[in-house]
Amino acid sequence: MISIVESSAFLECNTSNHELEIVRSELSTRLVTAEEQLRQLKSWRKEDLKENVRVVEIFATHKNTWQAEERRLLQLIDVANEEMPNLRSKIEEMEREKAESKRRVEELEEMIGFMSRRGGCEFEEEENQFCGCGLWKFGSLKKSRYPLENGDFSL
After folding, report:
1. 32 pLDDT higher than 50
2. Is the pTM of this model over 0.90?
3. Greatest Cα pair distance in the chain
4. Do 88 and 69 belong together in one domain?
5. Fewer CB within 10 Å, N- or C-terminus of the chain?
């Protein structure tokens, strides 16, 4: 037969084994849960890595587009800078032509004023001969010497 000491030791051992089994079961469950979490984290990390690669590709594409646009705009600036001296010289030429035209108009106005003070305008007769109707006399309309299509002499 088993003695009381042996049976108490057996019970203690059994109890310890039972508790150890509970602890082992809990640890095993925690291990399975931790392994599943680790697998999920690795999966998420892999997905994040793929998405980061896509983001980098998108930014690289945008950067290339921006750089191409920058090069195009810099070329336009260069072309504009090369064209500016030509445009400046054309402006100067047009200003000289404008000043010359203004001087010529002033000469002609002075000549017209002189002719009108003299009492008659030789150009009026020439105007009628060449243009046919003498519509302008010192900037204003006058009656025509020739009848219009309807027979009227006035304008």
Report:
1. yes
2. no
3. 166
4. yes
5. N
Output the CA–CA distances (angstroms, integers) from residue 76 to 64, 67, 68, 83, in the order listed.
18, 14, 12, 10
Q: What is the mean pLDDT of residues 52-62?
A: 95
Residues 6+ away with beta carbon under 8 Å from 2: 10
75 shares its domain with 148: no
Q: Compute the distance between CA of residue 42 and CA of residue 20 in angstroms, rounded to an integer.
A: 32
Please tell me the total count of domains within the chain: 2
Helical ranges in the chain per DSSP H: 4-118, 122-131
Domain that holds residue 26: 4-120
Cα-based angle 46, 48, 51 (whole degrees, multiple of 5): 110
Q: Stretch 62-91: mean pLDDT, rounded?
A: 96
Taking residue 134's Cβ as centre, other Cβ atoms within 10 Å add up to: 19
Give the tokens for residue 138.
Answer: 């010192």
| Amino acid making up residue 12 | E
